[in-house]
Amino acid sequence: MSEIYQRVKGKVTLITGGASGLGLGIARRMAEEGAITIITDINDDKGQKAAEEICAEFMTQDVAREDRWQEITRHIYEKHGRLDVLVNNAGISGDGLGTDPETTSLAEWQKIQKINGDSVFLGCKYAIDYMRKGGGGSIINMSSIAALVATPFITSYGASKAAVRQFTMSVALHCAVTGSKVRCNSVHPGQIITPMLESLFAEAANKMNAPVDQVKQGFLDKIPLGEFGEVDDIAYMVLFLASDEAKHITGGQFVVDGGMQLNG
Fold first, then answer.
1. Do 201 and 117 fall into the same domain?
2. How many CB atoms neighbour CB 3 within 10 A?
């Protein structure tokens, strides 16, 4: 690839949930643009294969475990002497549709908050100091359009992603006022074609006793631009925020949803 396109050349980048879906797409784009890329995932087999595919390093990680965050960030700093970019991408959607405020169990609520919320807290907590030591960095927290609109049918998921958004602002201001030179922003995907979204279509079709194509069209009708997003739509946004092109941007929320939020 031409030198002019090496937008994150040499930047040591950690991406959680990097074995598939959005995480893998982001990792691939970052690696192609010159980043020293480390992906983590709880799925060891998929993670190893993904790392080989994109020439990245892989480490197994349960993102809700504090000790594992300590081990991974320390390993990266000791091996590379810096940590420039963290993409907190790992997360789960839970048991699917139909988990409204009355029917969601406490166990389900806590599981999603732990994986989607605690992981972002821990990632930021242990990345900031290593980034500071390296002269600064960029943290990108993966939120969702679900953080910005009412989601009574996926209550815990929406709440967890709203928490990610608020925490992102707090981290951004903390890092700014302490002179850490660490930027922190959140990305809010809409309906992006991934295996997770395809499984959501199938589940909705089953619950509605309707054809999958009909369900997909129902989702599509809510997107003003008239098409589902692609993984690269998110990967390019993350790439921009990780690059020096975004050096004056922190605390922002970046919605990539084809205008879906406009419909509420």
1. no
2. 7
Active site residues: 157
At 263 the pLDDT is 85
Determine the structural domain holding residue 208 and report its residue range. Answer: 193-228
Considering only CA atoms, which of 4, 18, 238 is closest in space to residue 138? 238
Q: pTM for the full model?
A: 0.95
Output the six-digit token pair for 86. 């963290």
Whether 108 contacts 156, CB under 8 Å: yes
Instruction: Report, in angstroms and rounded to the nearest whole number, the Rg of the chain calculated over CA atoms.
Output: 18
| 3-state secondary structure at position 256 | strand
Q: Going along 128-261, which residue ranges are E strands?
A: 137-142, 182-189, 253-256
Residue among 252, 257, 193 at smallest CA distance from 225: 257
Residue at 173 is within a domain: yes
Nearest to 153 by CA among 215, 92, 94: 94
* Gap between the Cα atoms of 38 and 66, Å rounded: 18
Domain count for the chain = 2
C-alpha 207/C-alpha 201 separation (Å) is 10
Taking the chain (264 residues) in runs of 10, the rounded mean pLDDT of each run is: 75 98 98 98 98 98 99 99 98 76 93 97 99 98 96 92 99 98 98 88 84 91 96 98 99 97 84
